Amino acid sequence: MTADVMELLREDRALALPRLADIPDPLPLLAALAAGGIHVVEFAFTTPGVTDLIAASADAPGVRVGAGTVTTAAEARDAIAAGAAFLVTPAVITEVAEAGAAHGVPVIMGAFTPTEALGAHRLGAAAVKIFPAETVGPGYFRHLHGPFPHLPLVASGGLHEGNAAEYLRAGALAVTAGSSVVSATDVAEGRWDAVTERARAFQAASRP
């Protein structure tokens, strides 16, 4: 499963994070994102009923769905039981790393400082998410790759089609597409063509 998710992430160089208050039906959203070229999607624990969303999405064709904002082992286990293909944390959280390892589910672990990034890697993180990326900018990724050249980094926070490519050029493995691609209005009104168009534009603009 680790290879599957990471292979998709390396290919797309992007994952979607629709951090919304309500997602009535995840399947048309996932189809719209996939049509736009984004096949790795993170549903966050800040969205009500996230485990139900994951369960409904686990077998969606061509897409790998994971759980985001995972902060406890209990959340990790609930997400995995619902069918999450990967876990994402906002910080270095040992119990989530352990839960992921116990079930063979990859963890993309949040970090900010070099110490945290190395700590996440040593806990077995499949990749390290630098969050919030916009606070430090693309240059920070170049600096991190100096001492940690083989550390897979994901940029998250403040990414959009105007700046995503800068992070990839600076050495990020992938970038996170949030509200710039998936807006609450588009989802609420079922404007799936708009989501696909935004995803496609994000992908096109983010190529380094």
Kindly describe this structure.
By secondary structure, the protein is of the alpha/beta class. It has a single domain, classed as TIM Barrel, CATH 3.20.20. Helix content is 46%, strand content 15%. It contains eleven helices and eight strands. The strands form two sheets. It has a six-stranded parallel β-sheet. The protein has a two-stranded parallel sheet with strand order 2-3. The chain starts with a helix and ends with a helix.
Summarize the structure.
The chain is built from eleven helices and eight strands.
The secondary-structure element order is HEHEHEHEHEHEHHEHEHH
Secondary structure: helix percent: 40-55%
Q: Pairing-aware structural class of the strands and helices?
A: alpha/beta
The rough form would be described as: globular
**CATH third-level topology:** TIM Barrel
Keywords:
alpha/beta
Write the layout of secondary structure elements.
Layout: H1 2-12, E1 14-16, H2 26-35, E2 40-44, H3 50-57, E3 64-68, H4 73-82, E4 87-88, H5 94-103, E5 107-111, H6 114-122, E6 127-130, H7 133-136, H8 138-145, E7 153-155, H9 164-169, E8 174-177, H10 184-188, H11 192-205
Parallel strand pairs: 1-8, 2-3, 4-5, 5-6, 6-7, 7-8
Helix pairs in contact: 2-11, 3-4, 4-5
